[in-house]
Amino acid sequence: MTAYAPHYRYIAPAQVAHYDLPRLVLGMILIEAGYHLGLNLVDAFLASAPDSFVDAVHGGTSRTGLMLQLFSFVIFGIAAMMVTKHLHERPAITLFGPPAQAWSDLKRATAGGLLAFGLIEFLPPYYPMQGAILNAPIAWISTLPLAMFAILIQTGAEEIVYRGYLQQQIAARFRHPAIWLIVPNLLFASAHWDTTGGVGAAQAYVIWAFFFGLAASDLTARSGTIGAAIGFHLANNAFAFMAFGTEGHPDSGLALILFPAPDSLLPPSVTEAQFDFPQLTIELLVIAILWLAARIAIKR
């Protein structure tokens, strides 16, 4: 595919290094093991902290707690870079593509995605705002740069693993786009399985995550870097974490606008216990809009 010509240059470093499947499987095991070992060390460090603080970190229910949770993803990204360097014997920087272009793509895709979300918010239908409150707006503004950096760490780490390491290594072994587009994102989607809100909600979330990852993989293939995918992911998660939340609910710590708990006043969402097909359809449409905005921004 002509549109994916940059992808062949992107995966070239993986093709001249070790790209056998057993090594890839071992690499993913080492990445996951390193990540969970790192999280265990973080938990050990938090053991002496008050229970309320630890709960806020695990649940992301406070500003500091959620940022610490997001910053912990740096372990995930470092694990992938170490595996790339020491197991596959190629420079970790090759996971990103050309650095200058990756940085440019990241900035452009982030700006395009945030602009798209802004335009979507101005269009009907509108959220019912009964009972909603502004969550410490001065603190929200003052911590905005640090919060965005924390989200960049989280999204960047996930992109390094799934659209960087996995996609490159699989594409080095299998040339057909269907394989390197689908397989990494089946793993990405499975990592989002969470039955806390019910099986129906978990199923919807996994489907959403698969198509989200597919869009990120496509951007990576079109641009030849993971910069656009990180920007696409960053814009999505910045809006998800920093715009709206439910008081006391997971990942609500950075939200500017909080709805009261229980969330009976919230619009339907894929976090509800049942499988909400109409809402999932809307969420997938938002992915398509965000993907298109990123493509326009990076001119791909």
UniProtKB/TrEMBL annotation:
Transmembrane segments: 24-46, 66-88, 133-153, 199-217, 224-244, 277-298
One Pfam family recorded for the sequence: Rce1-like
Positions of the CAAX prenyl protease 2/Lysostaphin resistance protein A-like domain: 142-239
GO molecular function, one term: endopeptidase activity
Alphabetic keyword roster: Hydrolase, Membrane, Protease, Transmembrane, Transmembrane helix
Keyword field contains Cell membrane: no
One GO biological process term: CAAX-box protein maturation
Domain of life: Bacteria
Name the record gives this protein: CAAX amino terminal protease self-immunity
Source organism (scientific name): Thalassovita mediterranea
